[in-house]
## 1
Amino acid sequence: MKTNKRTVWFLTLLSLVAVISIYYIKEKAPMPFDGINIFKDSPESIQLTENIVDADKTTPVFADSYLFEEMRMQVRDERSKLKEQLTAKVLSSDHTSEEKNVAYEEMERLTKLDSAEALMEMQIIALGYPEAFVRTEEGTVKVTVLSTEGHSKQLADEIVRYVKTNWEDPKAVVSVEFKGGTE
């Protein structure tokens, strides 16, 4: 059975049109923001905008998240500079093979550290915190958490216990800092 490309394209297009038309025929309510409803002055659209604008309840949404992103960028910049120096050392012909091996192992350690910190951040967020930032400095694991519930010794102990049980070095010192929320 020999079919040409034009027939295959035609059948594909025909089936796509059939699926899309069945979807729109079966849809019971019109799309909320289709081209016609945007320009109408219906009570529903006016009510929708009235509910969104509430001057008494305005709170900054992205201020604390921006702080976490800024901290991540600083750590990423520092580590990328260090990786560039190590890469230059590995590629240089001025160093011995032992020095190159040490530099390469340090690059691998930094990569593993980055992934371990990112994994720990995701796990802390899975505990119910909106945002977390984990970094390791001189054997200390520093955890910064965005908390909408405020902070307490109990919450800090929970995070410290969790990090100690899941971190690759259980002897590491863990410090927890809370951002946001009520004091």
Note: Residues 97-126 form the longest helix (30 residues).
## 2
Amino acid sequence: MKYKEIKITSIDSRPDQVRTDFSEKRIDSLAKSIAEVGQLQPIVVQKKSDRYLLIAGERRLRAVKKDKKEKIAAVILEEEVSPEKFRQIQLIENLQRQDLNPLERAISINKFIEANDLTKKEAAQKLGVARTTLTLWLNILDMKEKYQKEVLKADSPITLSHLSLAHALASRTDNPNKANQLLDAVIKHNLSRKETQAVIDLFYKYLHLPMAEAVDAVLLKRERMKLKDYWAEDNKKYSHNLARKLFRSFSNINDNLEEFMEEEGKLPEADQEELLDEFLYLYQIMGILIPELKKDSLDNLLKQIKTK
């Protein structure tokens, strides 16, 4: 290979290149950068008779054209580049520069794997990435188009990590619909990765638990933690207030219940009746302290809490 400046008009782009989405805003920004400090990285081309075939650097080429320059710095490959090697070079360069969006990246890697009849391990080695990372990138291809588009949105709560969790759930349950339900909940409730994992943990632990109830349990915990933080801050000012002490007592009960659920999962039948009696007694006491509780049924109160 050799390096020199070549005429822009002598360069042809390949129709089967990796990148398909070209942001005019980003190309404009790159053009301004090149105008100010020059072209810091050459494009890569292959010599074809008296012309050149672009191998890598489509964005740089477009940016230099915007800057009205006649020539561009290029690394010239003299030998023939096979379609497979072309895609590998483009992929590696774009992966190193992080120039591809998640869907473009996954589609390109998948084409590279199929064209060369590679395993994921072999493809990861050729592209210079960890196999687990490559698998994470490819998961997007198994998702519905709706979720693929969500990942590309800047303000979407769904990330590749969420898709990986959903993919694992679908594989373990052999039910893609469970993954869809999970991702719909992520979008609707803006679930973090940690909250999404908590939903899955509940679903795995209680196999007959509907997905909606697992999500509700995580949302309830989210709201309780917000309230707990608020009261913790408030208690610094009113540490001897009886109402604050009462709240701390309930908070401790909730913490103990959550700990029991995580470790044991299910209350022995011998203890269920006694605990239910304690709960009903507590409910009656709360009805005296908070008269509004007496105006509605327990079922409706629970529905109101879930709605909030």
Note: The first helix runs from residue 24 to 37.
## 3
Amino acid sequence: MADVRVSDGVVTLSPLCLDDLEAHLAGEDEELVRWLNGGPGTREGAEVYIRECTRNWTAGGPLLAFGVHLEAEGALAGTIDLRFEAKARGRVSLAYGLYPAFRGRGIATRSVHLACGYAAARGAGLAEIKVEPANTASVAVARRSGFAFTGRTKDEDGTELDRYARDL
């Protein structure tokens, strides 16, 4: 797996791996299920997902999933995913989620800034976040991270999503 660490001294992003499995499962709550996961996680499903993340890191993408770690606490606080768009070169989509004990502390915003820096170093020129309009916490993170509203779209299942973009 890639030996990648991106840090600002408070938050460190490193490839999500099987060592993160227990903390990842323990951190899931109704909000993560509603806004990010699409359904309650299972040990088997999370293990399959993390193994796929490992394969993506080895292959160089297109999905690169980071564990969000707090330096001082040594804890997994959540995840942030970068999906490098094959159809739109130079574009990366971000998705993030924090576990309940770590919300409201600026960790998501720090993580987005770190992930954007990593994506830019890999050649991305534009970052995009798609979020359901009712997910006000995620919208606030996008705005605090320098993303601007660019319009509304629909997901494959018809869910309305607001699009936010930021030049890298």
Note: The first strand starts at residue 6 and ends at 7.
## 4
Amino acid sequence: MEAKTPRLGRPARLSREQIVEAALGCNLRTVTMRDIAERLGVSHSALYRWVNNRDELLDLVGEVVVERILPTAEPTADTWRQWLSDLAWRMHDQFLAVPGYAAHVAMPHRHNPHAFGRLHDRVVSAFRLAGVSDDMAEQSWHIFGLGVVQWLGAQQMGHDFGPDAPRFDLFLDVLLRGLPAQEPGS
């Protein structure tokens, strides 16, 4: 077995995992790279050696959150609706646990293509298992994602719905009973 050559210079004080964990403790709607550097106790320039900019930071956070919310089991023709309900509740718990994350995701922005691509593919697969066309599965993905994310974003941004605020369990039940999308009149 060949011995490893020691690396010259100081050992790395940072990792992408540390950076993401630091970001998860900040309000993601307002966090700056300087905030993350201060939280980690490193220089602003040291952080940029690991993460190029705020968008890349939010991409890393998105990857971690999507990994946490995706159920490990695959949906089936018998379980697709329960699978989507489980996913929505995981979104509820994880998105609201990270300050500003639901509000960030609910606002127009560029999504991490890798992380949200995985989420998209799994949700579309669930709707296909419900027996709808590829087009209706895509439409259902948009309705499901938009509905859940907008509800969570509104909740996190503190929109005052008054004493009759829609409960997530009721909202989700109505949403899922209406999905998958069908062509009007069919």
Note: Residues 14 and 49 are 10 Å apart (CA to CA).
